Amino acid sequence: MSHAPVNLSRRQLFTRRKMTDSPALPWVKEAQFTDLCTQCGECVKHCPTQIIRASDGGFPRVDFQLGECTFCYQCADVCPEPLFLPKTEPAWQAKAAISASCLATQNVDCRSCGDSCEPFAISFKLAVGKVAQPQIDLNSCTGCGACVSICPTSAISINQPQLGSANVT
Q1: What is the dihedral angle through the alpha carbons of 142, 143, 149, 155, rounded to the nearest 10 degrees?
Q2: Which residues bind [4Fe-4S] cluster 2 (predicted)?
Q3: How much is the mean pLDDT over the chain?
Q4: Is 47 assigned a ligand-binding role in the annotation?
Q5: What percent of the chain lies above the pLDDT cut of 90?
């Protein structure tokens, strides 16, 4: 049985994507985010990769289907509210995860995620009788999302770690 929180949003009822599991913005103070964010849209306007979009309630959220986060800190620089941690802090604890819909699990050779991973956090382990299987080094993964939009089966997501759980792929 899954202990993931249930999303009661009507907008998410018929979609496959779980936006609440993905990080809102890098360096954001999650506990104060909905209290302090005024939904002004400055972070959306100034994101050079245009991956920040308004989500439920107009709050900004990173959408990795549109591209990757370059950790440029522009969203924090233009924000008029004290929502962000200093750039010297880690951007977030979010990490990539690969689901069972990955082509490699269906014995189809695809290495697009590994090719797009700049920190080389995704490697491929050879397997007898199968194509090489992707593995994520969670210590190297920055959660940038470069692997998400490139995946032909949408098998990769960037998720915040659940308290007390290990994300091993």
Answers
A1: 110
A2: 69, 72, 75, 79
A3: 86
A4: yes
A5: 74
Query: Coil, strand or helix: which one is 9?
Result: coil
144 assigned to a ligand binding site: yes
Q: Which CATH architecture has domain 95-159?
A: 2-Layer Sandwich (3.30)
The reply to whether the predicted model has a pTM over 0.70 is yes
Q: Residue 23's pLDDT is what?
A: 81
Is 43 assigned a ligand-binding role in the annotation?
Answer: yes
* DSSP for 17-49, written as a single string: --GGGS-SSTTB-GGGHHHH-----HHHHH-TT
Q: Is 151 marked within a binding site?
A: yes
**Look-up of token digits 């306007």:** 45
Give the whole-angstrom CA distance, residue 127 versus residue 119.
23
d(CA 100, CA 135): 13
Tell me if 110 is assigned to a ligand binding site.
no
117 is in an annotated binding site: no
Question: 20-78 maps to which CATH number?
Answer: 3.30.70.20
For residues 16 and 8, give the distance between their C-alpha atoms in angstroms, rounded to a whole number.
Answer: 14
Q: How confident is the model at residue 164 (pLDDT cuts 50, 70, 90)?
A: very low
